Structures are given as structure tokens and as C-alpha cells.
């Protein structure tokens, strides 16, 4: 976490004397409400504009041409509507100081996060939660930890919880407005409530993807990309290569030749894609040279939140060192493609609810063939879901949780009843204590009283929820790359790309009959037809299993002194029993175990963290 920003807003100018100074901070504007950019930001990632009493900063990757941005800035000042400046291509935060009003915007996916806390008589805000935790010396939020352990992130996120007590988060698609030292969160973005035609949606997606990638090529010059062999990273890499070829430049790509990637034919497809353009310079990392998953767990740096992706720190560090060796200014990753290009299977219930009976039956039978289950199972669960509102569904999950009827997806085979819902079902592991279950149940009960769906169709709501949750995890990967001095971005998580995808009908985004129909249709005239032949997705559990087996002793040692046990959130005897199952090759509990291990490692790093963000002697 070497790049971040922070600011202070107060109605009392005398409080400025008490303000702490951030380490390695460059002040972008002074006065009663100062703002700093901290760390090693590239020049392309900080943009400021000023007019009269209004100051604006865009932090991140904004792809709007400067002349157009200036005009939009002036229009926003006249209309007093700064949210229109969040409808530009790229991935960025927007910060506006308009006399005594401060506005700080997140992006739609939550990659560009914002946190805030009270400090003396004002508000301190930051792109990271850790500096604020350090500033006020707060403890970890046990409720947040509990909900994360069970994979339930949305209620806490939308109620402004963060991993730290008294540090609040601004949800994705929202902004923080501070007026005279008083903070208030407001939503500026909602998923499309009306769908476009398939042709309109695909053309919009095409334009947004081309802009997202070609804009980055233009802004950063030397860029690189993952090339896993999957549809998403292949599309990003080929669009970039095609654009760089016009400039006479090469695109460096990185492919990890893991055992799973070879077995699932990802490598075959990656090698094919790399051969399509002469200016692609591929780096194929052989299995023998690649660190295994779960290696270097003791080297995981401190991040703002935990994530199971931390288990791949050895591979991430290795990959980022390759990226740096190419002098790349920006590395692109295809994560987010699955979430934005597809949708929740709950859309099947929406087809029934909207009386599209023929299509409902076609898709039910189609998914039954794909998943090798009875169509009656799908039809039955879709019927039940179509009759339940969001708040009623939350009540059902709360009751199941408190009565012990909610089994973890990781402990039993995932059923259509688990897959088809308004949101992710809490994942209860047998090592979770009653205290953990009670905390999550109470959070769900509290959320149910005020909960409103992002959209009326449950499939569209859950798709948005999944994007938010995935964006939060991708942010951790971004911070892991940042610790290696590499700039990693996920174009599929750009706000305008997300909106373009969600504007298509769910049954046209995800169908049992065609793989990633939306993307293939959008890019069919821009990329070689041979990449659209593939209709399968890679699967990497073997790499995870072999890495965990190789480093099992290190995992056991790490869990000997568990902070989660001390907090009363997990039972060590039950966890040890589950670990023995894992050692013997039973993988039914692995997802929940990885979630628990990630939280434990993160808590241990947090306990050993020193003063990393503020100049010593400035903290009150």
C-alpha cells in the first residue's frame, strides 16, 4: 500500500494546527480543507483542476481527454452536480472541494475505495482504511470479521462498516459529502433499471472496452497484460496488441504454465492467442520456476482487508517482478470478466416472474444439462424464489442461521437452492463458534429492517452484489501488486464497462447455450474468429491442492497461535479436525478454510504493524 490519498474537512480553521502530516505526502491544495496524495503515484494518475473556490482532483486512471474534461468540469460547477464527472472512462476517485463542501467519490466496483473517521472536530478521509485505523488507534471490528468469515459482505458494506471500529467506508457507487464537518453518504449510481436490446448492449460494451484498453495504451505507453488463455485476458491482450502494433510497439504478456492450466488447455489457447499478432512478446513461466500456492505466507504484506488471493503471494510477486523487468507502466488483468459479463443464475426465477414461460423452461432445461441435475430441481427452486422479496429472503437466511439449518456450501455439494437466491448464502463452517454465528445473524437482522435491492429483478440485484464483493477482493490483489511497485488494473471493473454489461438482459448475458455470448458478439469484428471457438473455462483446484499439501506444515505452524481463537470466533479443535480432512485430500471444506486462513494471516500482520502512514510526533 504505497499509494494513497487523504484529506481533512472541518468547520474550524484552528484545528489545522493539530492536523497530522501523512508520510511522503504531496499537498494538492491547502486551506481549511487540505488534500494530500501520498506515495509514488505516476504523473498520469493525478490530475487537478481549479476554478474560483472549487478545487478538483482525479486520482487513478481517467481516460477522458483533457480538453473535454475541463469543459465537463466547468459544466459540473454551474450545475452543482459533480457526479456527472464519474461517468468518464477509466477507474478513479474524484475529490472536489467547493468552498465549505467536500465531495469524495468511489467507483462502481469498489476498487477505488474511500474511508472516513471523526478526528477532533473534523473528518479525515482516505483511500485506505489502515491510515485512519492508525490515526485514531482503533481496534478491529468483530462484526465485520465475522461476516467476512462467512462470505457475507454486502450488509456490512452498505451499512458503512469497515474492518476497523469507528472507521467507516463509503459503499461502491456512492460519494461522501462533508459540509461544515458533517459527513453524509449518498448514492450516485444504480444498475440500469431498463435493459437495452442485445445489439445496443453489445455495441456499447465494444465501445467501452476499446476505450478502456486503447485509452490505457495512450495514457501509459508501455503496458503489459496477463494472457492466461481464458476468454477475458485474451480479449484484453489482443485489443492492446492490435493498438500497439499501429505505434510499432510490443505488448509483453505473461502466462503461468501451471499444472491445472496445462490440463484444462488454457496454455494451448494462450499460445494460440500469442501467435496471432507479431508484436506480442509472450513470457511463458514454466511450472518448475513458478512458486506454488501457499508459498511465502510469511511474506504477505499488510493490506487493507483480507482475501483468499493472499495465498498466491508467491506467484503474484513472481509475476510482478516479470512485469517490472519489461518496464511496463501498467499491467492489465482479466479478473472481473466473469462477474460483469455473466449474471446470477437467479435470473431464471425472474423469467418466471415476468411470465416468460417458454424461455423459463428452455433455460431451466439448458442449465439442468450443463449441471447434470434434474430440471425439476431448478424449476422448483425458481418458483420458490420468484415468490420471495429481498427482505423476506434475508429473514429466511437469518432464521436458518439461528436455528442451525444453514449448512455451509463448503460442507455439502452446492445445490440450486444455494445458488439461486437474492444474494450469497452465509457459509457456515463447523469451526465457526456460536458467537460468530450470532454476530452474523444480528447483522442480517439489522440490515433486513432497512434493506433495499439494487434492482427489482433478483438476478440483477445479485449480479450487482457479486460485482461489489469481487471488486473488494480485487482491490487486495491490486494492493499486493502495489507492494511490489507494480501498477495493476482490471479494465472489466471500469464503471462504464460494468454499466454496459448490466444494460443487457441477464438471459442474454448468461445462457446455458453459448459461452460468454455478450463478449464474443461485442468483439467479433475486432478480433480473430479463432479465439471465439472456445466454450470452456479453466479450473485450478489441482494447483491449490498441491500447493497446500507442499506447505501444510507452514500453515499448521501459522495457526498454532490463532488470533481468531483468542477472539472467540473459531474453535481450534474443530478447525484441526477439518485440517486433517484437508490433509487426507477431502476438499469440501477448502473454500471456508481459505477464508479463515486469510483472515488469520491478515490479523497477525495487523498486530505487528507499526506507524506506516503518519509522520511521527504528529499524532495526537
Explained architecture:
The chain is globular, with a radius of gyration of 24 Å. By secondary structure, the chain is an alpha+beta fold. The two termini are 23 Å apart. The strands form 3 sheets. Strands 2-3-1-9-8-10 form a 6-stranded antiparallel beta sheet, covered by helices on one side. Helix 5 (198-220) crosses helix 6. The protein has 25 helices and 17 strands. A hairpin with a 2-residue loop joins strand 8 (115-119) and strand 9 (122-126).
Note the overall shape: globular
Class from helix and strand fractions: alpha+beta
Give the strand content. Answer: 5-15%
Radius of gyration: 24 Å
On the 0 to 100 scale, the average pLDDT is 92
Strand order of the largest sheet: 2-3-1-9-8-10
Number of helices: 25
Give the end-to-end Cα distance, rounded to a whole number of Å.
Answer: 23 Å
Q: What is the β-strand count?
A: 17
Most strands sheet: 6 strands, antiparallel
The protein's oligomeric status is: single chain
Helix fraction?
40-55%
- Uncertain residue ranges: 408-414
Amino acid at each position: 500500500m504505497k499509494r494513497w490519498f487523504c484529506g481533512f474537512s472541518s468547520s474550524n480553521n484552528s484545528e489545522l494546527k493539530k492536523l497530522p502530516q501523512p508520510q511522503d505526502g504531496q499537498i494538492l491544495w491547502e486551506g481549511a480543507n487540505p488534500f494530500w496524495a501520498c506515495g509514488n503515484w505516476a504523473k498520469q494518475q493525478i490530475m487537478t483542476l481549479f476554478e474560483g473556490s472549487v478545487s478538483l482532483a482525479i486520482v487513478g486512471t481517467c481516460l477522458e481527454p483533457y480538453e473535454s474534461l475541463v469543459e465537463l468540469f466547468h459544466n459540473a460547477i454551474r450545475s452543482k452536480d459533480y457526479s456527472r464527472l464519474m461517468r468518464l472512462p477509466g477507474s478513479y476517485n474524484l475529490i472536489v472541494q467547493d468552498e465549505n463542501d467536500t465531495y469524495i467519490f468511489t467507483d462502481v466496483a469498489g476498487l477505488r475505495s474511500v474511508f472516513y473517521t471523526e478526528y477532533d472536530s473534523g473528518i479525515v478521509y482516505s483511500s485506505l482504511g489502515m491510515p485512519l485505523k492508525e490515526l485514531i488507534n482503533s481496534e478491529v471490528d468483530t462484526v465485520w470479521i465475522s461476516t467476512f468469515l462467512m462470505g457475507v459482505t454486502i450488509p456490512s458494506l452498505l451499512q458503512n462498516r469497515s474492518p476497523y471500529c469507528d472507521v467507516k467506508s463509503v459503499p461502491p457507487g456512492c460519494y461522501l459529502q462533508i459540509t461544515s464537518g458533517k459527513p453524509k453518504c449518498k448514492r450516485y449510481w444504480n444498475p440500469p433499471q431498463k435493459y437495452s436490446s442485445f445489439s445496443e448492449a453489445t455495441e456499447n460494451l465494444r465501445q467501452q472496452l476499446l476505450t478502456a484498453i486503447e485509452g490505457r495504451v495512450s495514457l501509459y505507453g508501455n503496458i503489459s497484460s496477463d494472457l492466461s488463455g481464458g476468454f477475458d485476458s485474451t480479449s484484453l491482450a489482443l485489443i492492446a496488441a492490435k493498438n500497439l502494433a499501429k505505434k510499432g510497439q510490443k505488448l509483453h504478456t505473461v502466462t503461468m504454465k501451471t499444472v491445472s492450466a496445462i490440463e484444462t488447455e488454457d496454455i494451448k489457447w494462450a499460445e494460440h492467442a500469442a501467435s496471432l499478432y507479431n508484436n506480442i512478446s509472450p513470457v511463458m513461466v514454466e511450472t518448475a520456476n513458478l512458486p506454488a500456492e501457499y508459498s511465502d505466507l510469511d511474506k504477505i504484506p499488510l493490506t487493507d482487508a483480507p482475501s483468499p488471493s493472499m495465498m498466491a503471494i508467491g506467484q503474484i510477486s513472481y509475476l510482478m517482478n516479470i512485469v517490472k523487468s519489461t518496464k511496463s507502466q501498467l499491467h492489465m488483468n482479466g479478473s472481473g470478466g466473469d462477474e460483469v459479463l455473466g449474471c446470477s443464475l437467479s435470473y431464471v426465477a425472474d423469467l418466471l416472474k415476468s411470465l416468460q414461460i417458454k424461455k423459463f423452461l428452455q433455460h431451466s432445461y439448458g442449465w439442468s444439462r450443463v449441471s447434470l441435475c434434474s430440471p425439476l430441481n431448478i424449476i422448483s427452486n425458481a418458483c420458490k424464489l420468484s415468490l420471495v422479496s429481498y427482505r423476506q429472503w434475508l429473514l429466511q437466511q437469518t432464521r436458518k442461521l439461528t436455528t442451525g439449518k444453514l449448512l455451509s456450501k463448503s460442507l455439502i455439494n452446492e445445490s440450486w437452492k444455494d445458488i439461486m437466491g437474492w444474494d450469497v448464502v452465509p457459509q457456515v463452517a463447523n469451526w465457526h463458534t456460536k458467537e460468530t454465528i450470532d454476530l452474523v445473524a444480528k447483522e442480517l437482522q439489522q440490515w433486513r429492517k432497512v434493506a433495499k435491492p439494487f434492482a427489482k429483478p433478483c438476478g440483477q440485484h445479485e449480479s450487482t452484489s457479486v460485482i461489489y464483493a469481487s471488486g473488494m477482493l480485487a482491490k487486495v490483489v491490486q494492493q499486493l501488486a502495489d507492494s511490489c511497485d507494480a501498477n495493476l488494473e482490471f479494465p472489466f471493473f471500469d464503471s462504464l464497462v460494468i454499466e454496459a454489461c448490466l444494460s443487457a438482459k441477464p438471459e442474454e448475458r448468461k445462457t446455458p447455450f453459448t459461452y460468454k455470448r455478450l463478449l464474443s458478439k461485442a468483439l467479433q469484428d475486432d478480433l480473430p474468429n479463432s479465439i471465439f471457438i472456445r466454450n470452456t473455462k479453466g479450473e485450478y483446484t489441482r494447483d491449490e491442492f498441491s500447493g497446500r499439501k507442499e506447505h501444510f506444515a507452514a500453515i499448521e505452524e501459522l495457526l498454532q497461535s490463532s488470533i481468531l481463537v483468542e477472539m472467540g470466533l473459531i474453535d481450534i479443535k474443530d478447525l484441526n479436525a477439518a485440517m486433517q480432512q484437508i490433509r487426507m485430500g477431502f476438499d469440501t471444506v477448502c473454500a471456508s478454510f481459505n477464508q479463515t486462513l486469510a483472515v488469520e494471516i491478515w490479523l497477525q500482520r495487523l498486530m505487528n504493524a507499526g506507524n506506516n502512514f503518519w509522520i511521527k510526533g504528529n499524532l495526537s
